[in-house]
Structure formats: C-alpha cells, structure tokens
Amino acid sequence: MNDNRISALPLFLSGLGAGIALTLLMASRNGVATRRLIGRQVKGGEEWMKAKAAEAENYVQTRSARLRDGVAAVADAVARS
C-alpha cells in the first residue's frame, strides 16, 4: 500500500505538467488570462498537496504512537517473565 502512495506523486505531477502544457497550447484566452487561470490551478494543486501532506503527517504520527505503545507493552511483558 505504501508503494502506491509513493508512485502516485510522480504521476500526479506528470499529469499536472501535461495539463499545463495542453492549456498553453489550446488556450483560447490571451496571455494574461491564461496565466491567471494557470495560477489559480497551481494554487488549487498547492492546497491539495498541503492537505495530503497534513493527512500523511497525521497518519505517520498515529501509526508511530501505536507502534511505540505496542513495543512498550511487549517490553513490559518480557520484563515481567
């Protein structure tokens, strides 16, 4: 499952780059409007990435706390026996 998360980022960035390139090539807007559109899209992607990073940080903290508690429980059990 972890491999899927790692490989998703390059795919996302590739898709983002392709979308920007196509937008520039197929744009029916003038340069200023196109740059504004791209800026909004990049800002949205940035916010999405920040949200995903926060989720990942929370996941890692939760999992590490569970692991730490599990190791402590096993160490206590071993010490008692």
Describe the structure concisely.
93% of the residues lie in helices and 0% in strands. It has two helices and no strands.
Account of the 3D structure:
The protein has two helices and no strands. With 81 residues, it is mostly helical. The protein has one domain (2-80). The radius of gyration is 22 Å and the shape is rod-shaped. It starts with a helix and ends with a helix. 0% of the residues are buried. The model has no long low-confidence stretch (mean pLDDT 84).
E-strand count: 0
Number of helices: 2
The largest sheet is: none
Through-space gap between termini: 36 Å
List the SSEs and their pairings.
Layout: H1 2-26, H2 31-80
Key traits:
93% helix; 2 helices; mainly alpha; 81 residues; single chain
